[in-house]
Write a structure and sequence with these properties.
The protein has about 375 residues and is α/β, with parallel strands linked by helices. The chain has one domain: TIM Barrel (Alpha-Beta Barrel), CATH 3.20.20. It contains 14 helices and 9 strands. The longest helix is centred in the N-terminal third of the chain and has 25 residues. It is globular, with a radius of gyration of 22 Å.
Length: about 375
Amino acid sequence: MRLTRRESLAGALGLLVMGAAAEAQRRRRFAPELNSLWRQARRTGRRFGSTVGIGNGAFDDPRYRRLLTTECNVLVPENELKWTALRPRPEVFTFQRFDRIMAFAQQNGLAMRGHTLLWHHPRWFPDWVANYDFGANRRARAERMIREHVATICRRYGTRIHSYDVVNEAVDNNDGTLRETAFSRAMGGALPVLDLAFHTARETAPRAQLVYNDYMSWGPRAANHRAGVLRLLEGFKRRGTPVDALGIQAHIGGGNDDSVEFGIRQEGEWRRFLDEVTAMGYDLLVTEFDVNDNGLPGDIVRRDAECGALTRAYFDLILSYPNMGDVLAWGMCDRYSWLQGFAPRSDGLPKRACPYDADYRAKPIREALLAAFGSAPPRRA
């Protein structure tokens, strides 16, 4: 059937209208690039980014990948560089899943952080570590295994990874002591293990930022945790262990261990802790931000408002430190937040922990981050 000129024009106009509507819908779902979080962070000399994981479906969702490229300029793998995913057996490394994330980052001009070279917590090593026979010379075998693990990752990725969480959560949050693992028992204590990991990372990734990462906070139960982290950082400095920065996980909200809770502020204690850390010469960065809405009512408007208010208060404080660097969310969209399964709400409602909801609509958490970056002083180089 041949169309008249009028019908052709009407059809073209219809396509334009449909295209405009689709673009308007996209802009409602995804922040306009000129007002993206990474651009706002960049104005202060910082980067903004997020985790992404293979196993939970986020990486294979084109909407999530588009959100990452719109809002972020740095990524971190959720689980793909942890021992349980990367080293299923003592002699086997499996890089395939992380390599997919790395390729995506490179294709889209996104920087990459490494998480984590050594999660020094017995719960989060693969089972084979607890049962491993280190032989007659236990210390030498354990040292060789730590060196091999750290060096293998750092050499493989070279300068493509600019920052590593070298050691993660080595301090017990209850009493502030160092956690024991199969490696610390073999090497006569935790400190030789942690120092070895950092020294090996410096040798094999000399240009990378080396980070100690943990979840201490300003919460009322966090005093022992903060004290333990300070002792560890002081010891690193005294022994010449090459640590550049403290990574602050910032899993804030209700229901987390020693968390920054709704309605409870101990900002004075938190500032004193950060002052001591920075006085030692360490930089700061936020490595795993989200908001656990446990304890808040089910009403979405109220929940979102309180999560946004807590986000703004937290980042107004921490971004006031000029040596506070990059900020990474532990997920950009509620659909893929680890908190949905790890710490579900008692009322069964989905959590609203991320800057975007499960339908990719921006929330007050995002607006709070934008505002906090907008009022933050520049990062000191």
